[in-house]
Specification:
Order of helices and strands: EEHHEEHEHEHHEHEEEHEHEE
Distance between the termini: 30 Å
Structural class: alpha/beta
Strand content: 15-25%
Radius of gyration: 19 Å
Number of strands: 13
Strand order of the largest sheet: 4-3-6-5-7-8-9-10-13-11-12
Number of helices: 9
Largest sheet: 11 strands, mixed
């Protein structure tokens, strides 16, 4: 577990108005669903948030509540908090504008100490001398009201983009140095961050972006959110999104039932474990599929192959790819 400096802030503002349809229009057999947080723990959630829940959406203000934890090779275990508009705190940190900067955005019911962050942080710092910024938006993600969390993810994405702009203005860094990675609901949020940066981030990775509440959501992950966008699907149709979302979509093992897993929560976590291994070893070669239907049916015989994950964007690549993995690390079959 990462040891993090705790920064406590009090929500005193109100988020900008969110156009949410009230869920008091009648009963729905699918309203209450069992769904996991990003560590695989199961919760019963209200998919259609009742109108009284909107007060919690308005209470969350990511401009005040989000906490940004900086990790570098100089401080790989204990973070240095960065706060928007606090130049003194930034100047005393280990942030270096000459490095690449990786932004990590956790999923539902998680925080800066989630497995997603700890696994990727270790892999990233071992592979390259980078700035890693862990976004803690737990005050917006830790609710059993799924609709509330999805709305908070949208507003948080806008706030993270504002933070990146502020950071660049005060350090001389540029968007060309960034890679944004998100898991679950955080996968969609990563895309929203890129969209608010005019799609100019070179590389955005969505790890099993969430399904519930995003099928008809106009803010879901889009191919144009980055110059190169990639999604890794590991639990499609249950906790993860089924259809392709990015310029390149990978469906390891057909996108569900990962070898070595015995639960949907385990499948959901495999995305960041595969990405971490790809950063360390560069493995995982996928074969091109006609479309995502072919990928889930494991019927892919296209002429092209492409490496999944890794630190470098595959700018110019597109399509859907299938690959198989091992049940235990190393997961890559080469």
């Amino acid at each position: 577990m990462l040891k993090l400096i705790s920064v406590v802030s009090i929500c005193v503002g109100i988020c900008s108005a969110l156009h949410l349809d009230p869920a008091s229009r009648g009963a729905d057999d699918l309203r209450y669903q069992y769904a996991p947080d990003s560590n695989g723990k199961i919760h019963l959630v209200d998919v259609r948030q009742p109108i009284w829940g909107l007060k919690n959406v308005m209470r969350y203000n990511p401009l005040r509540s989000n906490v940004y934890h900086l990790f570098t090779r100089e401080n790989p275990r204990v973070s240095q908090p960065l706060m928007p508009n606090n130049v003194n705190l930034l100047s005393r940190s280990n942030y270096k504008s000459i490095r690449r900067t990786i932004v990590l955005i956790h999923g539902w019911m998680n925080s800066a100490t989630s497995n997603f962050n700890s696994v990727l942080l270790r892999a990233l710092l071992a592979a390259e001398d980078v700035n890693v910024i862990v976004v803690d938006w737990s005050s917006g993600s830790n609710s059993l009201q799924y609709r509330e969390v999805n709305a908070n993810a949208i507003s948080s994405g806008s706030a993270v983009a504002q933070f990146i702009n502020w950071l660049n203005q005060n350090t001389g860094s540029v968007l060309a140095q960034y890679h944004i990675i998100g898991h679950g609901v955080g996968g969609h949020q990563a895309g929203i961050v890129g969209r608010n940066l005019n799609g100019q981030v070179p590389y955005i990775t969505g790890l099993d972006p969430a399904l519930i509440g995003w099928v008809n959501n106009i803010y879901r992950f889009r191919p144009s959110d980055a110059l190169y966008s990639e999604v890794i699907h590991t639990n499609y149709g249950v906790f993860g999104y089924l259809a392709d979302l990015a310029k390149v979509d990978f469906y390891p093992n057909g996108g569900i039932s990962m070898p070595g897993c015995d639960s949907n929560g385990c499948d959901h976590e495999r995305g960041f474990q595969y990405l971490a291994e790809s950063i360390a070893s560069g493995g995982f070669r996928g074969r091109e599929c006609m479309n995502y239907y072919a990928a889930v049916l494991r019927m892919c015989n296209g002429p092209r192959q492409l490496q999944m994950g890794g630190l470098e964007p595959k700018t110019g690549a597109s399509g859907v790819y299938f690959l198989e993995t091992n049940a235990q690390p190393p997961f890559s079959q080469g």
